[in-house]
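Hey, resending since the last one bounced:
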Amino acid sequence: MRRGWGSGARSMSSRSAPTSVMAEFCRPRPRHAAAAPRRAPGHPPYDAPMGHEAAPVGSRERKRRRTNGDLTRAGLELFLTRGYEKTTVGDIVRRADVSERTFFRYFSSKEELILRPLRAACRALLTEVARRPEAEAPLRALHEGGLAALRRVTGERPERHLATLRVVCAEPGAMAACLRLSTEQQHELARVLAAREGLPEDDPRPLVLAGAFMATVVRATLSWDERGDGTLESLVEAARSHVALLGPALAGSWR
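The structure tokens again:
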């Protein structure tokens, strides 16, 4: 019998349910014979290879990636020095030495320039959580999958990802865009959790946990920025320590 979100959790008394349910989040489940991760009907294959794992590309694609990188770098530099709200698309294209038409071939807006690396991080999170062993409880799968996703998206260009996060933390407009994306991605993450547990997508528990996890990630990022050293190591530690506190904060005693 699976020790996840089965029917047993629903039959608990209201007094004992919070602690018992959180214990189920954190407790390892019995290991079964190796099997493919469960997916809800029509669920997308989040463990498919991501773009940076593709085969070598030709000169046209290298040029496209170089232009994309130049625009991203120019935008982040201006956001950090001039401010997100005060920077225009015209400022970005002048810094990157391209036309506005070129900018809009790559990005729909300056907001998209901020959101694209964050979307890549969300895709990595979905992939890594879907790959976690079936025996892991949901919260443990989120913890380990989240750390793996962070290492994955910062592996090639950590400075670009860290600069994006600094802009998000410093600029209310960028933070608002990030929070909208986080709200959207909670539903995707809940579908991955429901598929792992063999639950119908209308079961509310995966979405509750996904929402708590995404809020914790935002809080960890703000704490990293407030700490001030801006390093990848401190970001990883902030993520690790905050997610580790999620279970005890929800179900444990604070005294």
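The chain has two domains: 57-107, 109-255.

Sorry for the duplicate.
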